[in-house]
Design goal:
The chain is an alpha+beta fold and about 250 residues long. The chain is built from seven helices and twelve strands. The strands form four sheets. It has a five-stranded mixed beta sheet. A three-stranded antiparallel beta sheet has the order 6-7-9. A two-stranded antiparallel sheet has the order 4-10.
């Protein structure tokens, strides 16, 4: 089990460096930004992923206890695919992301960087790579007067269903797979929480990546993402999935 000592020892060398990079990008004080790892406590095999994130990013992070979908009676009927029942893992994942957004809103955070506990940095990862990615985005946004970039930004996906090339290293998408690493601002957090509450009252559910995509389409906008899925952060697909099964089912490569 990860302890506070583990987290401190992994982050002491470059404390708050990632937070400073993100703060500079969004133009906010570092204290207005939280970096969160959603972690299902019983998924102890994922603690190694968390250690890799802490070591690579060199900054303090909040480990948020994931809501266990296996213990929830939440509606599971899919709002977008009639007759389809979403898994307990998808329920827990959605509830966890919404809870993280609610907490950040309550605490007055301007932005949060959200990681899932199956996320790891690429093998050649460096903070300079993140800085360069954000610099490319910032320059592109200024050149083409793109709005909303700082309110929702992907630092990795498991593939995009709809995408457009923007510039070297940067694509745009409004329908993507995966929610393992993204930066989100207050306006998008409020929309995420509000749309979740609306859909739930109707007795339905939408997986969190699908819900974020619908919010982008509703605003007629796109989120920027790395051109290459394996550029910064990736989903560790060598470990069992709690979305497809209860920690027993391996993902297809």
């Amino acid at each position: 089990m990860l302890t506070a000592k583990d987290i401190k020892s992994q982050s002491h060398r470059m404390a708050q460096t990632l937070r400073d990079i993100l703060a500079e990008f969004v133009g906010k004080p570092p204290g207005d930004i939280d970096i969160v790892i959603i972690h299902l406590r019983r998924a102890v095999e994922r603690e190694e992923n968390i250690k890799k994130l802490l070591e690579a990013c060199g900054t303090s992070m909040t480990i948020f206890p994931a809501i266990d979908g296996s213990e929830s009676n939440h509606p599971s009927a899919c709002a977008t695919e009639p007759g389809k029942i979403r898994t307990k893992g998808e329920i827990g994942c959605l509830l966890s992301h919404v809870a993280v957004a609610r907490k950040a809103l309550d605490e007055g955070k301007s932005h949060i960087m959200v990681f899932e506990d199956d996320c790891i940095p690429v093998s050649d990862f460096s903070l300079e790579m993140v800085s360069n990615y954000l610099s490319s985005i910032k320059n592109t946004v200024e050149d083409f007067d793109i709005e909303g970039t700082k309110d929702f930004l992907l630092l990795g996906t498991c593939g995009c269903y709809n995408w457009r090339y923007i510039t070297a290293g940067v694509n745009a998408t409004n329908k993507f797979n995966g929610s393992h690493c993204y930066l989100i601002g207050r306006t998008m957090m409020e929309k995420l929480v509000g749309s979740y509450e609306y859909i739930t009252k109707k007795g339905f559910l939408v997986p969190v990546d699908g819900l974020l995509g619908f919010l982008l389409k509703a605003q007629t906008r796109w989120a920027l993402c790395p051109e290459n899925d394996s550029a910064l952060f990736i989903q560790n697909r060598a470990i069992p999935s709690y979305i497809l099964g209860d920690g027993e089912t391996l993902r297809e490569e």
